[in-house]
């Protein structure tokens, strides 16, 4: 065997180049491993009763919302995003559990109006707070809870380490709580957005060295809309506009804190609303081009703004028309943060949400959600959306001809839901009715009761044309 030829010694320049290459490869590998193993922070911001068209980046001509407009340019803006329900309590149930609210025992109304305050989201239900806490996150609920008043139903028992909150809507209570201690009675409604923002900033600064999850459901612009002194009379849309523009500016303070603490690139920021405009605020709030308000199964009742930013991960300046709902956020954000829901300690109620991270990140063209059910505010199932088609299978006073039979709408051509196409597409009507019936039957067979004293659980309400 011929002896191996010895390699000539490297020149000094070659040695330096080789070392530089190895260092670069090591740094890239280490950086990749750090990115793969790191846990991004999450800030989930929810407005209260903000309509689809109440932000300038969603078409408002009366409100100036430069912060949220910029956030949309830096991330993704969803145009077919739906809140978890058309009223406060079930919307929050859906968001936190990733399930349609009837699975959690909801049979209509909100806590304090249709639901007695000693009832709410059951402690047995797995919440987003518990998912992130179990994954090692420091968790906080700052804002409006509205999932039950009794001690066992409070956020501290649903996965939140820190809680600074009001128990119901700002028109239903005057008490502000820190954990189980009364902080103020009465609170100053015009200062709540400022106080919740200050608390969120303090929490971020105190937990900057570890992963955190902040659930920040503001009370603004829920009625009564009372402007902060610094914003009073500043908007072109009365006190409602003043409150919306303050909310935008306060979110800017939170985003500024992320930048100043060098957490901007390590934090996912989500902004949504809990449902459409309150009927009493319809003079100022807008959901155009859609009809319908809070409590209604029309598009304006649940189609709301949704903006998501994660610098460097979610490509900037994107929009998506893909059907997405608040129940998708639990599986999607858990995935983004490296949390496997299958490994958490419990899994009730059954998950209805889909992981749509591929759509948000732009890494997949296959969107998993193809349909969605609608309930009105008293828990009557009334419609289903499949693709761009929406079928009303109940009588709805705002929908012409719904007293005569099912009404089929093409949302891509008729966002105001005024043209009934059921006669032209009878097979589509039949197909969507069967799908809705099967989905509702499965949901009704897999529910848990409301949290609170034992009660005789009411059955699901029937729809007129789904028999």
The CATH topology of the largest domain is: Alkaline Phosphatase, subunit A
Assign the structural class, choosing from mainly alpha, mainly beta, alpha/beta, alpha+beta, or little secondary structure. alpha/beta
Identify the CATH homologous superfamily of the largest domain.
Alkaline Phosphatase, subunit A
In the CATH hierarchy, the architecture of the largest domain is 3-Layer(aba) Sandwich
Oligomer category? single chain
Strand content: 15-25%
Rg from alpha-carbon coordinates: 24 Å
Total count of domains = 2
Question: How confident is the prediction overall: mean pLDDT?
Answer: 93
Shape: globular
Characterization of this structure:
The protein has 467 residues and is α/β, with parallel strands linked by helices. The chain folds into two domains: 39-370, Alkaline Phosphatase, subunit A, CATH 3.40.720; 372-444, Arylsulfatase, C-terminal domain (2-Layer Sandwich), CATH 3.30.1120.10. 27% of the residues lie in helices and 16% in strands. The chain has ten helices and 18 strands. The protein has helices spanning 12-37, 66-74, 88-97, 128-134, 192-206, 238-260, 299-302, 329-336, 357-361, 426-444, and strands at residues 41-47, 76-78, 81-82, 110-111, 114-115, 138-144, 162-166, 176-178, 181-184, 212-217, 267-273, 306-309, 318-320, 324-325, 371-375, 381-386, 389-392, 407-410. Strands 9-8-7-6-10-1-11-12-2-13 form a ten-stranded mixed sheet, with helices on both faces. Strands 15-16-17-18 form a four-stranded antiparallel sheet, with helices on one face. A two-stranded parallel sheet has the order 3-14. Strand 16 (381-386) and strand 17 form a beta hairpin. It is globular, with a radius of gyration of 24 Å. It starts with 11 loop residues before the first helix and ends in a 23-residue tail after the last helix.
